[in-house]
Please model this.
Amino acid sequence: MMMDKKTAIVEKAAWMGYEAVKAESDSLIMTVVPKLGSRVVSLYSKAKQIELLRTPQSEEAYSQAPLLYGIPVLFPPNRIEDGRFSYRGQHYQFDINDTATGNHSHGLVHDKEWMVTEMKAGNGQAVIITEFNAVNDHHVMRQFPHPFRLVMKLVLEEGMLTQTVEVHNDSSQAFPWGIGYHTTFHFPFREDSSEANSIFSAPIGQRWELNCRFLPTGIPVTDTRSGPLNEGIAIAGVQLDDLFQKEPEAANEAVLTDKDAGIRVRYMADEAFGHWVLHNGDGTGRYLCPEPYTCVTNAFNLKLSPEITGMKEIEPGRSDSATCVITVEHTE
Model:
């Protein structure tokens, strides 16, 4: 265990039988499971004694819907049509793991083991760094034959979690990339909190029209919910399962406020993230996924400019990064 005068602790732990790493600040306790895609599986408010993320009651529950717990890392995010695309004359075929639509879904790394490369505490910060190296996974290299590394840095400080991912191109060729997070909050945060007193806002603009395979047609459409969602709406009776462009003039953050619990969570994404998926199933499961994406679903196949789709490219030997921040505030 490593400790600092101002509460900052990092230590090895266990989570549902998996090896985990736990970090603690003055306000929050975070648990990360490297074997489950370097997933943040728990973010706990010490003052309110509330779990902020959706967590499974059992390993069986987790296995039935693994992407609806914690913060899964999607590289690339969402679906790829038929699992295939071409880039600079090279053809790629990803596994078809969404048999209902015949697409690849949710990327290559959310269920892969990452390695812990550093864990430290100091100056009020608890830091965990993990890495996924593609050359160590032949299943990934078969689908995406580029040596690459993802380095995830998680910094817990007081009431703030900063999550930064670096994408490193260790190959001799450029490749396209995109990343997103299937972040699933338990919302309302408290079991006895009213949905009528649970307010959600998101920085959304036009909605991407989707076809029957849940792939964008390439046409953004006006959605009458965008204005109210930018201002904030009570989540009671609201059903969401949509992909939006970011509203250009809005601060790039989703905000979840549980008035009964006296807690507000701000989920900020940096300028790399230009799209949001909003999802809460049928609206009755008491969870909410505000999912920041750097690129739109199926970006590698859309006949639109990268400025619109968000598709990014990395030349050989170069790297890029993207950052999200979760800030927890007490409203009473």
Notes: The helical segments are 59-64, 138-143, 226-231, 306-309. The first strand starts at residue 8 and ends at 15. The radius of gyration is 19 Å.
